[in-house]
Design a protein that fits this description.
Blueprint (H helix, E strand, L loop, with lengths): L3 E4 L8 H16 L4 H22 L2 H26 L16 E4 L7 H5 L1 H4 L1 H28 L4 H21 L29
Antiparallel strand pairs: 1-2
Helix pairs in contact: 2-3, 2-7, 3-7, 6-7
C-alpha cells in the first residue's frame, strides 16, 4: 500500500461558467508562456534540489519536522489548482486547498542529501509514463469539457481517468520531495479505496 493518498469527491454537476473561467485562465497563462505542465516540471526538478539543500544544511529530522510542512502545503495548493483546471474539482479553493482535494501522507522518511538529489534521475520512468498518460488526458479533458457544455456532467470513466492523472502526479511530487521512499505505483488506483467520509486532513509530523 502506497503511503500517499489523494482523495477527491466528484461534484454533483459542473457549470458552464466555471468551464469558461478555465479557458480564460488557460489563455492568461498562455500569454505569460506558462502552463500547469511547466509548473509540474519545475516542481519535479526543484523539490529534490530543495530537499537535498535543506537536509545538507540542517538535518534530516529538522527537514521532516519543519520543511516538510511547507512542502506539503505547496503541494496541496498545487493539487487543488490542478484539480480545478483538470476538471476534477468544480471550483477554485478559497482559504484551504482541502476544499477541493485531500492529500494524506501516512509516513515520512528521513532522507539523505545525495538520495534526495538522485531522485531527479530515479523519478524519470514515472515522469515519462505520466507525460504520455497526460497527453492522452488532453483528449479525455476535451471530451469531458464537451460533456459539461452539453449536460453539465462528466462521465464516470473520464472522471476516473482525470483523477488518476492527478493522483499519479501528487505521488510523484511527494516522492521527489524525498518525503517518502516508496516509488509512485504505475497505477491510477488508490489503496485503500477512499471512503464516503468528509475530506481528511493531510497527516504531517
Amino acid at each position: 500500500m502506497h503511503p500517499v493518498h489523494y482523495f477527491v469527491r466528484k461534484p454533483e454537476h459542473f457549470t458552464r461558467i466555471q468551464l469558461a473561467a478555465r479557458f480564460i485562465a488557460f489563455c492568461a497563462l498562455g500569454v505569460l508562456g506558462l502552463s500547469f505542465g511547466m509548473v509540474f516540471a519545475f516542481l519535479y526538478l526543484a523539490l529534490p534540489v530543495f530537499a537535498a539543500s535543506r537536509v545538507s544544511a540542517r538535518s534530516p529530522e529538522r527537514y521532516l519536522q519543519r520543511d516538510s510542512k511547507t512542502v506539503l502545503t505547496v503541494l496541496r495548493w498545487f493539487a487543488a489548482l490542478s484539480a480545478w483546471a483538470g476538471l476534477v474539482a468544480e471550483a477554485l479553493p478559497g482559504r484551504s486547498p482541502e476544499e477541493a482535494v485531500s492529500i494524506e501522507v501516512e509516513a515520512l522518511v528521513a532522507p539523505t542529501p545525495s538520495g534526495a538529489l538522485f531522485r531527479v534521475v530515479t523519478g524519470l520512468p514515472s515522469a515519462l509514463v505520466l507525460a504520455f498518460l497526460g497527453w492522452i488526458g488532453v483528449f479525455v479533458w476535451v471530451w469531458a469539457a464537451f460533456s459539461i457544455l452539453l449536460t453539465q456532467h462528466v462521465g464516470t470513466h473520464a472522471f476516473r481517468y482525470l483523477v488518476g492523472i492527478q493522483r499519479w502526479s501528487v505521488r510523484l511530487l511527494v516522492y521527489q520531495a524525498a518525503l517518502v521512499d516508496d516509488y509512485p505505483p504505475f497505477s491510477f488506483a488508490d489503496t485503500p479505496a477512499p471512503q464516503p467520509l468528509p475530506l481528511a486532513r493531510a497527516i504531517t509530523p
